[in-house]
Specification:
The chain is an alpha/beta fold. It has two domains: about 110 residues, P-loop containing nucleotide triphosphate hydrolases (Rossmann fold, 3-Layer(aba) Sandwich); about 40 residues, no CATH class. It contains nine helices and seven strands. A three-stranded parallel sheet has the order 3-4-5. Helix 2 runs parallel beside helix 5. The longest helix is centred in the last third of the chain and has 16 residues. It is globular, with a radius of gyration of 17 Å. The N and C termini lie far apart (about 35 Å).
Length: about 190
């Protein structure tokens, strides 16, 4: 996303090198990061946070449809459009962060630890929505320590240990791999 200077290598998207692009230009390419720790705008309402996600868009009719879509995905925040972001629960803030990211109409949605610090029931809801977003045609890069939940919905997965890829393959295959089960699932 251009937030941290690269130390080595190149990043390509759709055959275009984006390594040196500014963050706003990467967003313009359709790559969106929903960061760890939610990072919503605490002093804006839910609806204002949602609108902020569409700041680069000009297609008002499509924006309205997408707003309806994210509120359908997250009915809990749809009930709180007037409420300030800071007053939402942790799970509601995470829902708002994902909804705001979706408003940019991403080609690639990067979700960084969406289950971090959430209650088990909320985690289940978040992963159900991630699955629905995927089924609706949004490409997702999921960075997640909850290996079981992530592998259950992943088409393809990488297992990293101290920054090194140690395993790769279809999510379901890795979920059933004895090494993954022992190391990450406690089985």
């Amino acid at each position: 996303m251009g937030l941290v200077p690269k130390s080595d290598g190149h990043v390509y998207w759709d055959d275009t090198e984006i390594t040196s692009l500014k963050t706003k230009d990467i967003v313009g390419e359709g790559i969106i990061l929903c960061p760890e720790g939610r990072r919503i705008f605490p002093d804006l309402t839910v609806d204002e946070n949602i609108a902020a996600g569409a700041y680069l868009r000009k297609d008002k009719a499509e924006i309205a449809r997408d707003r309806d879509w994210v509120y359908e995905l997250f009915p809990r925040i749809a009930e709180r459009t007037w409420q300030l972001g800071a007053t939402l629960s942790g799970g509601e803030q995470q829902m708002l962060a994902v909804a705001r990211a979706l408003m940019s109409k991403p080609k690639l949605l990067m979700l960084d630890e969406p289950s971090l610090g959430l209650a088990p029931l909320v985690i289940k809801d978040i992963f159900a929505v991630i699955q629905k977003i995927k089924e609706d045609g949004v490409n997702i890069l999921l960075i997640e320590q909850n290996a079981k939940a992530a592998l259950e919905i992943s088409d393809y997965a990488y297992v990293m240990e101290t920054g090194v890829i140690t395993m790769a393959g279809p999510g379901k295959a890795l979920l059933n791999d004895p090494r993954v089960q022992q190391a990450y699932l406690g089985e």
